Amino acid sequence: MMNDAGLFALVSLLLPALSFLVLAVVYPFRRLGRPAAWFSIACAAGSLAAAALAWDAHADGDVSRLLWAWLPTGGEVLATVGVLADAQSTVMLTLVALVAFLVQLYSIGYLSDESPPALGRYYVYQSLFAFSMMGLVLAPNFLQLFICWELVGLCSYLLIGFWYQRPSAARAAVKAFWITKAGDVGLLIGIVLLWRHTGTFDFFEMRGLAESGAIPLAGLSLITFFIYLGAVGKSAQFPLHIWLPDAMEGPTPVSALIHAATMVTAGVYMLVRTEWLFALTPDVLLIVAFVGAFTALLAAVLACVQDDIKRVLAYSTVSQLGYMMTAIGAGYAAAGFLHLLTHGVFKALLFLGAGALIHAVHSNDLKDMGGLARRMPQTAIVFVIGTLSLAGIPFFAGFLSKEGILGATLAGGLMAPFAVLMLVAFLTAFYMFRVVFLALFASRAMHASPLQPADASPIHHDAVEATHGSPVHDPPATMVLPLWILAIGSVGIGLYFTFVHPEEEFVNPGWLMPAAVVTAVAGIALAWMAYQKRSIDAAGLANAFAPIRTAALRRFWLDDLFEGIYNLVFLGFSKLVGWIDRYLVDGVLNALSAWTLTAGDDVRTIQSGKAQDYVYGVAVGLLVLLLWARWVLA
Amino acid sequence: MRGTAYELLRLLLPEVTLVGLAILVLVAGLISRPSTGAQGQRPIAGWMTFVGLLAIFGLTFFIREGSLFGATFVLDGLAMFAKRLFLAAAALSVLGSLTNPQYPFARRATEYHFALLVSLLGMLVLASARELILLFVAFELMSIPLFLLTGFLKKDAVAPEAALKFFLVGTASSAIIVYGLSFIYGVMGGTMVESIPRALASGHPLMMLGMALLLAGLGFKIAAFPFHMWAPDTYEAASTPFVAWLSVAPKAAGFIALIRLYIEGVGPEALVWMPVVSVLAGMTIVTGNLMAIPQQNVKRLLAYSGVAHIGYMLVGFAALSSSGVAMMLFYLVAYMFGNMGAFFVVEAVARSEQSDGIDAYRGLAQRSPLLALAMLIFLLSLGGIPFVAGFWAKLYVFLAAVESGLYGLVFLGAVLTVVALYYYLLVARSMYIDAPTRRESVPVPGLLGAAIAICALGVVGMGVYPGPWVDVAIRAASSLF
Amino acid sequence: MGLNAYLTLAAVVFCIGLFGVMSRRNTIGILLGIELMLNAVNINLVAFSRFVGNVDGMIFTVFTICITVSEAALGLAIVILLFRVRRTVTADHLDLLKG
Amino acid sequence: MNIPVLSVMTWAPLVAAVVVMFFARHRPLLVRWASLAGATVSLVASVWVYWAYDRAAAGFQFQEEIAVVPSLGISYLVAVDGMSALMCLLTSIIIFAGVFASWTVKERSQEFYALLLVLVTGVYGVFVSLDLFIFFLFYEIAVLPMYLLIGIWGSSGEVRPQGIFGWAMGRTGVGTKEYAAMKLTLYLLFGSAFILVGILALYVANGSQSFSFLVLEQVQFDPTLQSWTFLAFYIGFGILAGIWPLHTWSPDGHASAPTAVSMLHAGVLMKLGAYGVVRVGMALLPDAAVDWAWLVGTIACINIVYGALSAMAQTDLKYVIAYSSVSHMGVVMLGAATLTPTGLNGSVFQMFAHGIMTGLFFALVGLVYEKAHSREIFKMGGFATMMPGIATAFTIGGLSSLGLPATAGFVAEFLTFLGAWSSAYQWWLFPAVIGAFLTSIYVLRVAKQIFWGPKSEDPHFQHLPDAVGTEWAALGILVFVLVVFGVMPSLAIAPVDTATVPLVERLTGR
Prior knowledge:
heterotetramer, C: about 100 residues, Helix Hairpins, D: about 500 residues, 2 domains, two-stranded antiparallel ribbon, globular
C-alpha cells in the first residue's frame, strides 16, 4: 500500500540527510563555508520540490507507508523506521521544506560576517535539522517520532548556542535543552507505557486498535498525559515555556525556522497526529485546553512589555501555540493544525523581517529602531503583512485559522478559554502593532520608550564593530526574496481561504467573525494611539497596569523558580551525594583497610623477641589443644 | 618379611648413598684444608654435595616401592614423593649457596655441607618411617643439625641468638612430641604406626592426649600459629640460601609426619581432627598474613608469608581426604619453587645492596629487569595468581576443602589472599613503581642465577601446565587410602 | 602402686620442666628445664613398658636419653657461643630480633 | 575453517607482548608497531568471528577444547555465542583505539604496552572461555596488570582526607596513584574471592566432574545452593561491574589511570563484571536469578541516580567520566535484572555502547589533559574554537551517554526502559529515566563549560592545538562505531538476541 506520495516524501526526507552527511564527513568541504552553504541550499530546494510533489501526489484519504525493520528483539521486529505519507504529514512536510529552504537561503546573507568554518558548521546543523524535522513529520510510529523529536531538540540546542562565545547564548542553549528534555522524559515514559499498553509503536496499527476500541481505557489517561508532557516541553506550554524567549539568542533565521515555524509546533503536530488517541481521554484534553489558553494569555501579557523585538515575537509564538493547543483540547485538532500551518508561514515571515531590521541596525532593541519604514520600504511592507496576518485581519493568512480556533473552542463548549482567547486576540493585535509603530513608523527621536526592559537586550557586538555606522538600507536579494515569498504566501493563503472556505466540522455562530475583527482592530487602534499618535500616554497606560507589568517584567518569577530548582535541588543534592560517596561510602572502605593495617601492627607485638615468650606460645597452644581433646572426649 | 641384603640395598639406596656422600664430603674437607681466609674460593665440598645430591635424586627413580623390617620402613608413593622433594630442595639450596662469599662459608664449607647432608638424611628416613621410635629418631636427626646451621655464622651478632631461640623452642617441642609418643605407645602397647587407627577407634583418653601433644609438637615443626614464633627470627638471622631450604624441607617433613600419623589408614576416625585443624589453619592464615603486612625486611616478610602458606597447606590437610593430601603435596612443590626462588633473589639483592630491606629493591625493574621479573613471578606465585604455580596450589587446596564442606575456611583463605597480595604488591611497587636510587644493575653470580632460573622455570612450568604435577601428587596420595 | 601414679609423677615433672623453661632467666636454667621435660618422658616410657609388658618402651627410652644428651651438648655450645659474642646468657637480653 | 580463530584472537596480544618485552628494548617505534600488529590481528579475528557467527544456528560456535587437567575435569574450552562475540568485538575496538591513544607514552613505553597487551589477553579469555576455571584464571589476569599500569604511568589527583573517616583516609594515602592502584587491584581480587568460592561450590555440587559451562548448564542445582552462590557471584562480579556501594574503586582507579588503561578498564573490564553476572550467575542459577532480581534491579537503580548525582558534583573531568560509568553500569545491571528479552538486549547493548562511549571519553580527556595540562573543569573554557575536533567528538560522546537517539546510547537505554516496564518491578523505569535526565544535565554542563562556552581568561589556555595524527585514529574509530551502531542497532542486537532469548526462556520458563 504505497504510492508515489510515499516515494516523494522519502526523497525529500533523504536529500537533507545527504547534505548533512556530506558536510559532516567531508571536513575540508565544510570548512570552505559558502560552497557548503550552497550545496545545502540546493538539497533543501530539491527536498522542497519533492515535498510539494508528495503533497500534490497524495490522493485524499489514502495513506502510504514505507517501513523498514530497525530494531529486532525476541526473534521478531520490535520497531520499524520509515515514512507515513498522508494528508497531514505531506502538507506539514511541505511547510517544513519551504521554510527550511527559505531560511537557508536567507541565512547566506544574514550570516555574511561569519568565518567560513562557522558558516559550514551552521549549514551542517541546518541540514541535520531539516532532515530530523522531516523525519518527525513523516514518522510512522512513536519511536521514530521520538528519535527525530530528540534530534530536532539537539539541533535547536546547537543552533541556539551557535554563538557560544556569548555567555548568554551558551546558557540559553543548555537551558533550552534541559527544559525540553524534562518534557521529553514524560514523553519517553508515555511511549514506553503505551507500548506495554497496546503492544506496538505504530500509529497505523494503534489507530486501528483505538478505533476498534481494543485499547483498554484503564490507565490510558496517565499515558496520554505523559505524552502530552512532551508536547508541553517542545511546544513551550506553561510552565515549560521559559526556554523559548531565551532561545532568541540564536541567529534570527534559526528562530524563524525552529522556534517559530517548525520545531516548536512539533508538540502540536504530535497531538494532531494522535488525536484519535487523545480522543479516548477527554480529561487530558481538558487539561490541554486550559493550559493552552492560560499559556496564550500569559505569553501575550509578557509580549506587551518586551523591548527586544525578537522576544516580542517569541512570546507571541508561545501565545499562538497556546491557541493551537486550546483548539486541540476542545477536540478539534484540524482547526489547531490549520492555524499551525498559517502561523508557520507568517511567523517565519515576521522573524525574517525582524531579522532584516536587526541586520540593518545591529540591535534587537526597539529603542534603537524607529522610522525604519522610510529607509527599508520592502522590509516594512512584508513585516506589516505578517503583522496583519498575526493580528487576524481579514484577507490575511491568520484570519481564518484564528477564527477557526475561536470557533472550535466555542464549539467545544469551553467558555472560559474562549473568553481568554478573545482577550489574547486583542493583546496580540496591540503588542504586534506596538512593535510595528515603534520600529517602523514612529521616528526614533520621537519615541522614548516608557518600558524599561527587565533584561538588557543582548546586542550582537562583533557585528556592531564589523559594520558600524553603515547606512541602513534593505537587505540583499538573498534575504529579500524569502521575505516576499512568505509575504505572498500569507496573503495568498488568506485570499484562498476567503474564497474557498475550508470545511470545518463545526459551524461558527454568525457573530464570531465580526467580534474577532473588532477585537483585533481595537487592539491596533490602542497601539496606534499609544505609540504613533501619542494621544494616550504610554506611561500612563503602563502605570494603569503597574502590578501586572512589574510581574511581567520579572517574567512572573518562573525563570527564577527554575533557576532555584536547578541550583538548590540538582546541584545542592549532587554536592551532598558526592560528599557522601567520597567521605562515607569510600570512608568506610578506607576505615576497614586502615583497621587491617593497624591489626597487623598490633598482632606483631606478640613477637616480643624473647625466647621464653615463644615457649609461652607453644605452651598456650598446647593447653588449648589439650582442652580441646578433653572436650572431644566429653 | 625379612629383606635380603639385596632387598635392603635396593630400598635403602638413597639413604645409604647419602651417608656415603656425607662421609665423603667430610673426608674431602679434611684432606683439602682451604688456605685460611681465602675469599670466594670454590669450596670443593659444596660441589661434591651438589653433584652427589643430583646423583641421589636420579637414583630415586631406580627404586621400587616396598617395605623393610616388618613394615617399619616403607617406600610408598608418599615416601618417594617426599624424598625427591627433600633432595631437590637441598640441591637447589646448595646451588644457591655455592658462591656465598661470607667468610664462614668459604672457611668451613665442609661442616656446613656435612650438617646439611645429615639433616637431609634425617628427612629421608622420616619420610619412610612407619614406627614411632624410628620416626622420633629421624625427626631429631633432622632437627639438631638445623639448630647448628642456624647459628653457623657464629661471629655474627644475631645468628647465635636466633639459633638459641630455635633450639629452645625446638627442643621443648620435641620433648612434647616424645611425651605424646610415650602415651601413644602406652595405649597401643606397641610402636607400629599402623596400629594407631585401632587405638584411636578405642577412644582411650590417653590416646587423644598423646595425639594432641604430638600435634602441638609437629605444629612447631611446620610453624603453625601459635607455634610459629621461632620462624621469623630464625629466617632473618640465618644465611639466606639455608633459610630457603629451612623454609621448605623441614616443613614438608613435618607434614609428611602429620600425614603418616593422622591420616594414613585412619579412615573415618580421622574426621575427629577436622575442626581443630581447621581452626589451626584459619588462625595461621590470618595471623601470618596480618603480621606480614608491616614488615620492612623482606626476609621477615617472607617468613610470615611462609607461616600463612603453612596455613593454606593445613587447609588441604583439614580436608582429611585423599584429594586434600594430594593438593597439599602439590602445594608443597609449588611453595618450594616459589619460596626458594624468592629467597634466592633476596640473597642476590642483599649481596649487592648489603640489605634485606624493601627499600633495597627500589627501581630494581629498571636496574636489572630480569631479576625483578623473576622476583615478581615468585611473589605472584606466592600470592596465588594465575599462570604461576601458586594459583593452582591455592585453588586445589580450596577445592579439596570445599569437597569436605569447609566453605567458611575456604572463604577466609580466599579473602586473606587479598591481604597477602597487599604486602607482596608493596615489594612489587618498590621494584617497579619507585624510582631507583642507583642506576647500575645488580650483579648476580652465575650459580645463584641458575638457581633462580630453575625456580622460575618450575613456577611458570607448573603454572602453565599443572596437569602432570597434579597427577603425580594424586598418585602419591592415593597410596594412603 | 598403679600406672597412674607413675604417669602423674611424670606429668608433674614435665610441667615443672616446662615451667622452668618459661620462667628461668638464666639460659642454663632453661636447658635444665628441658632436661626435666625429657626425663619426665623417660619415666612415662619406662612405666608404660613395665605395664604393657614389652621392651619397646625401654628401647625408646635409650634412644631418648641419647638424643637428650646430644641436644644438651648442642644447647650448651650455643650458649657459650652466645656468651662470646653478646657477653650475656640472660634470656631476656637476647631480643635483637623481634616484631 | 580449521584455524582456531578464538585462540588466535585471545593469544595474539600476548605474543605481541612477549615480542615487545624481549625484542623491542629501547626501540619505541617497534614497540608500538608490534602492539598495533597484535591488536590488529585480534580485531580482524573478532570481526571475522562476529561476521561468520551463524545466527540461525545460534548457541556456542567456534568451539575449541584442550584438556588441561583431565583428572579434575579442567579443560581449555573456548567458544562464543552472540553475546560474547559482541563483547570480543568491543574489546578489539577499544584496544585498537587504545594503542593509538597511548602512542605518545614517553617513559617505559615498552613495559606499558606489554602489560596492556597481557591485560587484553585476559579480557578476551574471560569472554571466550566456557570452562569456569579457565574463566576465573583469565579474570585474574585481566585484573592484575592494572596495579603496575596505574602505579607506574598513572597520575595522582588531589583528595583531602577529611570527614569522620579522615584518619583512615590519611593512613591509606587516599588520592595518590599508588593508593588508587592498590585499591583497585585488591578490591577486584577481593571480589574474585567470592567468585572462586561460588565456582568451586558449583563444581563440587555437580559431583566434581567438570568445570565446563556446557555441562553445568544442564544441572539443576538445589535452591539454597543457588541462592547463596548467586549472591557470591553477584557480589564478586558486581564489584567489577561497579555496583553500589562497592563501586568506590572505580572513580579513583579510572581517574588515576593513564588514558589507554582508563579506556580499557571502564570500557571493557567493567563489562566483565556484568557479563559474569549474566553468563555465570543467571545462566547457571536461573531460579536464584529470578529470586534475587529485585535486589539486582534495585541496586542498579540506585547506581543510575547516585552515579549521575555524584558525577554532577565532581570538578575533575576524569572523575565526572568515572562516575558516569558507575551510572551507566547501573543501566546494564538494570537491563539484566528485568529478565526480559528487551531488557537483556538493552543490557548487553549498553555494555557495548557504554564501552565505546566511555572509551571515547577517556581518550578525549587524555587528549585535553595532554594539551591543556588540566583536568579542572571550571578552570577551562571555550576550547571549541581551538580544538573543534575534540569538542565535536566530546559532544557526540556526551550525547550518546545522555541517550540521544541516533547514537548507541539511546538504543541501549530505550530497550532497558522497555524491559524495566515489562518486568515484575515496573517502578524501575522511573529512576532509570530520571538518571538519563540527570546525565543530560551534567554532561552538557561540562561540555558547555569546557568547549561550548565563553573562552577562559587563563593564559595557559589561549593557544591549544587540536588532535593530531594518530590521535585522530582513536577518536575516529570510536565515534564512527558509536554512531553506526546507533543508527543501525540491529547490527548488534540481531546476534545478541540469539543469545538472550534462550537465556530468558531458561530463566522464566524454569
